[in-house]
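Ticket #472: bound-state structure for NAP.
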Amino acid sequence: MRKQDSLFIAGAWVNACGAGCATVTNPGTEEVIGQVPLGDERDVERAVTAARQAFAGWAATPSSVRAGYIRALAEQLKARADEMASLITAELGMPVQWCRAVQVEGPIAGLEQYIHLAALMDEVHEVGNSLVLREPVGVCAFINPWNYPLHQLLGKLAPALAAGCTVVVKPSQETPLHAFLLAEMIEAIGLPAGVFNLVSGPGAKVGEALAKHPDVDMVSFTGSTDAGVRVAQAAAPSVKRVCLELGGKSPLLIGADADLAAAVRYGVQDVMINSGQTCTALTRMLLPASRYAEALELARAECESLRLGDPLDPQSFLGPMCSAAQRRTVREYIQIGRQEGARLLCGGAEAPSEFERGYYLKPTLFADVDNRMRIAQEEIFGPVLCLIPYADEAQAVQLANDSPFGLSSAVWAGSSERALSLARQLRAGQCFINGGAFNYLAPFGGYKQSGNGREWGEEGLAEFVEVKAIQL
Ligand code: NAP
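RESOLUTION: The complex was predicted; output attached.
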């Protein structure tokens, strides 16, 4: 049981002004494993004031010193990586075999690149009679989801620290514990007081107060498109910078000349990792009609081979869904899919019989999906994959782009040249070809209703930068 009874504000652990606490549940056992304070608007006020007071000093700190703090934080995270991974497995339900690599080690590598990128803040460009300088945007609010909690947090925090910004963090109520562990590490490295502040509490109260606050210069939000729109609306009157990282319904376009077995295996696994609770999940598999029947069999066999089980069992590929509410939503979508006329190939909405407790749901495949169905247009955020046939490549590209979202995409084709030419036609912030790996050095973000921000790499730093022109 991890009881957090205070917030981290101005370099100290302080009692929350807000009353009560939120409990954190292990989705595999349904047991309460922690609690965090329910902060409110007064806590936001204190945290923003602390961040404002710390801003001038932190912005003026040499970039090499700021880089030193980032290095120290990375060392702390490496030293306590097992603890962090166990905590995230406990609050999220992602199996241990993935959690350490995906939820902890990857994000640490992402963090470490800003040790070097911090020096970009010192670069000055001459344009005609002007000097163009980079300065930090100011006080930043981070509002985060629950599905890749440390990844989301470091994707914002690392570039913000490198740029010289100060921050107030609001984690999701579903998985807040990792943020408290990170705050302990921040305290241990002696980051100047007020540079990092942590306020837990409900989005509608704490998140909204941060988005509205006139002394917050930027809000970086990761979460659903609906909540992102509300954050942007709340932020608009103060004309602050708003970076949105939102939902997705990403396509995997499999060409007629592809290695079908490899492509289908990749696609099924991509969706089922983290029980489909991945913003970039390739939840629409576009398959050539000429090879559709063969692909369905491959997909079914792959799906049925993936082990659903206790997140602490190293053999488990999928664990439970993060919460009862999330499982309820996904079950409703499975019912909707059946009513829309899609064919259930495996899985389904019924709770798997082998578990007495936990928010488990079977990995589910729908065949004969029409891209206009709700299950193909709306983000389900669970272990549900739609298999959609196409007649020719032009139609495949049209179907891939026929979505309100544009977060990610993938192509599998007979050669990388052909895959690349298809990738160029897809309206999405990233495209994985023939199984290419996620790259923390490259920008990450969405087109269309998947958002307007870019995280990681140099573009991730640019989000936290103001540019100033000085005319000589
Ligand atoms: P969510 O319900 O939108 O919540 C995200 C965060 O926003 C939470 O901290 C939530 O607080 C807060 N929030 C909710 N309403 C708010 C409001 N009116 N004002 C300010 N803050 C508010 O999303 P989620 O269920 O946590 O996460 C899943 C979603 O995130 C999916 O749509 C997924 O695709 C998306 N996502 C996108 C990316 C990306 O990089 N594009 C990455 C990961 C996830 P509570 O604590 O009260 O919930």
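RESOLUTION NOTES: The radius of gyration is 22 Å.
TICKET STATUS: resolved
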